[in-house]
Amino acid sequence: xxxxxxxxxxxxxxxxxxxxxxxxxxxxxxxxxxxxxxxxxxxxxxxxxxxxxxxxxxxxxxxxxxxxxxxxxxxxxxxxxxxxxxxxxxxxxxxxxxxxxxxxxxxxxxxxxxxxxxxxxxxxxxxxxxxxxxxxxxxxxxxxxxxxxxxxxxxxxxxxxxxxxxxxxxxxxxxxxxxxxxxxxxxxxxxxxxxxxxxxxxxxxxxxxxxxxxxxxxxxxxxxxxxxxxxxxxxxxxxxxxxxxxxxxxxxx
Amino acid sequence: xxxxxxxxxxxxxxxxxxxxxxxxxxxxxxxxxxxxxxxxxxxxxxxxxxxxxxxxxxxxxxxxxxxxxxxxxxxxxxxxxxxxxxxxxxxxxxxxxxxxxxxxxxxxxxxxxxxxxxxxxxxxxxxxxxxxxxxxxxxxxxxxxxxxxxxxxxxxxxxxxxxxxxxxxxxxxxxxxxxxxxxxxxxxxxxxxxxxxxxxxxxxxxxxxxxxxxxxxxxxxxxxxxxxxxxxxxxxxxxxxxxxxxxxxxxxxxxxxxxxxxxxxxxxxxxxxxxxxxxxxxxxxxxxxxxxxxxxxxxxxxxxxxx
Lengths: 253, 307
Fold this sequence. Notes:
The structure holds 2 protein chains of 2 kinds. Chain A is built from 10 helices and 2 strands; from the N terminus they run H-H-E-E-H-H-H-H-H-H-H-H. By secondary structure, chain A is mainly alpha-helical. In chain A, strand 1 (49-50) and strand 2 (53-54) form a beta hairpin. In chain A, 44% of the residues are buried. By secondary structure, chain B is an alpha/beta fold. Chain B is 33% helix and 29% strand. Chain B contains 10 helices and 14 strands. Chain B is elongated. Chain B starts with a strand and ends with a helix. Chain A binds chain B through residues 2, 4-5, 7-9, 11-12, 15, 19, 86-88, 90-98, 248, 252-253, and chain B through 14-15, 52-56, 73-78, 80, 82, 84, 86, 88-93, 97, 101-109, 147.
């Protein structure tokens, strides 16, 4: 194991985060605060309670997930796309380092960044609404699992993308709608029965449901199903990455 | 000298069906400077990319320091430093950070003294805290060399190191390469500039259309360069040469209209005086004569045209 190389990539990526602190950390915090103002205070004041929890409090886990999902994808996809774009990827490919180690460096840094971001948003939320977390360990576990899984997904997008438009396309056209429709701002129990069935096809529902359960013990689907679905998506991403490196797809051809 | 890189039956076909390399066999000796010459698109960069692990080979085998580049890639790659043709650099990192990053990437423990030495050797020491984006093209090129040398490689690939570099800097680069060779590093450089190959290399290889068409010691090539050719344009056609001229290695060309004589300018006697006087005796007259010297460039152009 070339641990020095993993460390080098990890620290290099983290240095990028600190260098671009404003857009990396501050802007998602600002936009999340705006969600609180609009959905939590303005609209939320007209909605009484959702499953025994005030609306402002109810949307906290969904908001954190929204940011963690989009930021994990953005960080990881940009992290690997940029060296491809500038050409500096030559050095990574010619280094005595395995694919697993490359992924560990890039995905580790992207996941770290979005976990830090998730925790900052959680702290910010604490300023707006009263928070109580029933299962803090599970909460962290869901946070880490989601950050890692979606950083892997972002890594795949970064390898696949051969232009900046493609880099933006999947997050904008697929992930953001799925997240908004995945119950960030409502319980899928509030949907009509037909739409509830459709919603269950959305993988993000399971993430948000499990994460919300760790906060308030209320869930749209059972917790084990949430964990199972997240792990299944993780396994799919790992398999795709394994295939990418085995064939050299968009890297070595 | 033993070979440090050994390429056997190497081929590369791109997804588009383009055959970039066709059955390449090449050995690079430990400690030498090897110049790989070839026109654009000949396969120089593809060959380097495969040896360094950036592209996958379609067929064939490459050993670096006795290690297979595919099955034993960690050992093989840790011996190699690569300076690619294009200026691929980070923009916002400092020189020091990017060179240290390269060392870490190759699994070497931190060694600020070594990085300092590399930067000083490349006259980059006073720029160590500058962001790369603020450097000139020539300096960026040197940063890339510093990155390649950060992990103390035994082999250094320089892909067109002096393309677009001014004369003074080019001479400086040659100096660096020579110093590296003295410290035991094997250097493989690709170049368009024949002058560069003449100046630097111990051996020269010519690649064209994905095939190696020549590999020779520079000294042997230079001997060929010592040859000169005298061409006589005869007044009248000659069908055969008289016996009295048999001692000269003469060729009748253009259906007997020209007579060609190759001679060695470095030899004690060129034989030109006696040849001319014997021609006169034999009654062969000429309108005009010219001499020309074959340069490495002629050899190169000839090879590329015929291959």
